[in-house]
Amino acid sequence: MPGDLHTHSTFSDGSTPAAKLPWLARCAGMTHLAISDHDSIRSVRYAYANPVRDGVHLIPATELTAYDYAREHRVHILCFWPDDCAALENYSEMMSRRRYEAVYQSCQELEAICPQFRTEEALELARDSGTLYKAHVMRVLWQYGLSDGMYNQVYRSLFALRPVRGKILHTPRYETVDTILELIRACRGVAVLAHPSVYHSMELARELIAAGRLDGVEINHPRNTPEDQEELTRLAREHDLIVTGGTDYHGMNTNTPRPVGALFTPDEAIHRIAALARNRKQ
């Protein structure tokens, strides 16, 4: 009963509607699926409203964004089985507003330098998410032949943070790692550090694991390096952490497409996540 525990839909910056993902998971032989949209209560509510769809068991999930201010980089933490509660709803609405304001400002600046771009078209792509993502902007540019793909040279010229700041980049303010971990605790969810290699979070991972602040780590991820995977495997074994895996599926909104189920979490880990969540809700 494997499961892809890291996927994104049109509830955030993916290109595939949530209702389609369980069918894709079933076709890949998955029995479980977590639609883990960014900072979104919508993916959580969708799973609670549809516990089984197309024969696939849905695990309520969201991928929460934090910022490690000491090291100046983002951090993603997967939260499984959170309560549909006021704390998560308020956080989701807050991040939705912050994202919208940041990316809307980028859209206005892009209109001034690119006559083919219209903010209204990005907003149409964003109707399921309720907020704007850079992916929506890039999709508009790409469909008119104005970009070399989703996240390549054109994207970097517009939105890069380093080494040269993109010409229209505006970023929302993110909460601290401590705040996000406290939110997961308040929601009685299961906290799993996502893809530590992506944002160079191994030093942070060591600290959080040593302090006993994580329930698990995502090791089977397409962008984790072999070296980091080896160290994470050792740390997970030493600290009895849950090991998860997933494709980080975004549909066509990616440079390297991977189908749902190409990477997955084994049965034992899925059962451990569910059992831990049940214990916290007693």
Write the layout of secondary structure elements.
Blueprint: E1 3-7, H1 21-27, E2 32-35, H2 41-49, E3 52-53, E4 56-58, E5 61-68, E6 73-80, H3 86-113, H4 119-125, H5 134-143, H6 153-159, E7 175-176, H7 177-186, E8 190-193, H8 202-210, E9 216-220, H9 226-239, E10 242-245, H10 267-280
Parallel strand pairs: 1-2, 2-4, 5-7, 8-9, 9-10
Antiparallel strand pairs: 3-4, 5-6, 6-8
Helix pairs in contact: 4-5, 8-9
Properties at a glance:
282 residues; TIM Barrel; 2 domains; alpha/beta; globular; single chain
Count of β-strands: 10
Helix fraction, binned, reads 40-55%
Instruction: Decide which structural class fits the backbone.
Output: alpha/beta
Question: Mind summarizing the main beta sheet?
Answer: 6 strands, mixed
The second-level CATH architecture of the largest domain is Alpha-Beta Barrel
**What is the CATH C-level name of the largest domain?**
Alpha Beta
Radius of gyration: 18 Å
- Beta content comes to 15-25%
What's the SSE pattern? EHEHEEEEHHHHEHEHEHEH
The average pLDDT score comes to: 97
Corresponding CATH superfamily of the largest domain: Metal-dependent hydrolases
Q: What are the low-pLDDT stretches, counting only 5+ consecutive residues below 50?
A: none
Shape: globular
- Major beta sheet, strand line-up: 7-5-6-8-9-10
Roughly how many Å apart are the termini? Answer: 26 Å
CATH domain topology of the largest domain = TIM Barrel
Tally of helical segments: 10
Overall tally of domains: 2
